[in-house]
Amino acid sequence: MKKVSPFIKGMLIFNTLIFALTLIDFLALHDIGKDYLSSETLEVLGISTALPAWTATEGEWQILTISFVLRVLFLLSNIFLLWYLLRKEEKVS
User: Would you give the distance in Å from CA 26 to the centre of its chain?
Assistant: First the structure.
């Protein structure tokens, strides 16, 4: 029986780790977004003031969301490809 390439196993483990870290990264940034100074946060604290529009950071959050979706799609396809190659190599052996 032919041994599975250590490169394929290593890449599969690495990609799984990166996928998990991407999820954790998004959750952390989401939490930061909840704690960030915003009109909603000030309302909860009972502070009444008008904030400039730039404090909403809508563009940054849109970029983060797009980046997150693209990374997840890339990593899932990469994991699937490595899994497929691993299964194909096992069948050849």
Answer: 5
- How far is residue 32 CA from its own chain's centroid? 15
Instruction: Examine the pLDDT at 1 and tell me if it is beyond 50.
Output: no
Angle (CA) 23-29-32 rounded to 5° is 145
This prediction's pTM? 0.61
* Residue 1, Cβ density class (10 Å: 0-12 exposed, 13-18 middle, ≥19 buried): exposed
| Cα separation of the two ends of the chain | 5
DSSP-derived secondary structure letter, 46: T
- Tens digit of each residue's pLDDT (9 = 90 or more) over 46-77: 888 887 777 767 777 787 788 888 888 888 88
